């Protein structure tokens, strides 16, 4: 008997919502068993977007008011979910690739794997939520041995805005746990009027920027003479209360960061 569940992302996941990009990570993954028919509401608007693994012997998705970027694979002879490349654009200009089939497969027990898919390998797929006209992507792992589809993460843009497959917005920076090349200190922190950022002198810092939680640059400094001494001070008396991030770069690579808090 098909079991239908409604997954509300904010109950089971870590979600980060900033301007333009709405990102949800499922950690080790939301595992959907074969023929389980799990109902998914990606943007929590009360409208069903997809049903995952709705049929016995298939690993795939059925759209309701959502529809995946897919193609009709002639060799597969069935609607097949098209995999996407990292950073591939999903937006209005790509609407020609959205087809409204009742379902799409990554795997079928009688046909095998659709083009671009392989057992237990993470793949990116794109979608559009017709109810809100929002474009997004999802990273999934199919497994033909267990008949499961594991959803690792998804993200979607504000209505009408395009998004690149795999792009998490500022969440990419917040979730980055890689050790930084140089140590960064800031004081006072929390601050009300000014902050001094201190880092190792003669470090290969080519630019310093301060960004808010929406990922918008509030301040940028790329003068070698201003950065070579290993410290930089700036006035925050007119800034809004909240969290900010100091980001140090060597070219395009982030080599140092520090979270700072503005209070009043």
Quick recap of the structure?
The chain has 264 residues and is mainly β.
Write the layout of secondary structure elements.
Blueprint: E1 6-7, H1 9-12, E2 14-17, E3 21-32, E4 38-40, E5 50-52, E6 58-63, E7 66-68, E8 70-73, E9 78-81, E10 89-90, E11 104-108, E12 112-113, E13 123-129, E14 134-143, E15 148-157, E16 163-164, H2 171-174, E17 184-187, E18 194-199, E19 207-212, E20 217-221, H3 224-227, E21 231-235, E22 242-250, E23 253-262
Parallel strand pairs: 1-4
Antiparallel strand pairs: 2-3, 3-15, 4-5, 5-6, 6-11, 7-13, 8-9, 10-16, 11-12, 13-14, 14-15, 17-18, 18-21, 19-20, 19-22, 22-23
Plain-language structure description:
This protein has 264 residues and is mostly beta strands. The chain folds into two domains: 6-169, no CATH class; 178-262, Immunoglobulins (Immunoglobulin-like). It is 5% helix and 47% strand. It has helices at residues 9-12, 171-174, 224-227, and strands at residues 6-7, 14-17, 21-32, 38-40, 50-52, 58-63, 66-68, 70-73, 78-81, 89-90, 104-108, 112-113, 123-129, 134-143, 148-157, 163-164, 184-187, 194-199, 207-212, 217-221, 231-235, 242-250, 253-262. A six-stranded mixed beta sheet has the order 1-4-5-6-11-12. The chain has a six-stranded antiparallel beta sheet with strand order 2-3-15-14-13-7. The protein starts with 5 loop residues before the first strand and ends with a strand. The relative contact order is 0.15. The model is unreliable at 1-19 (pLDDT under 50).
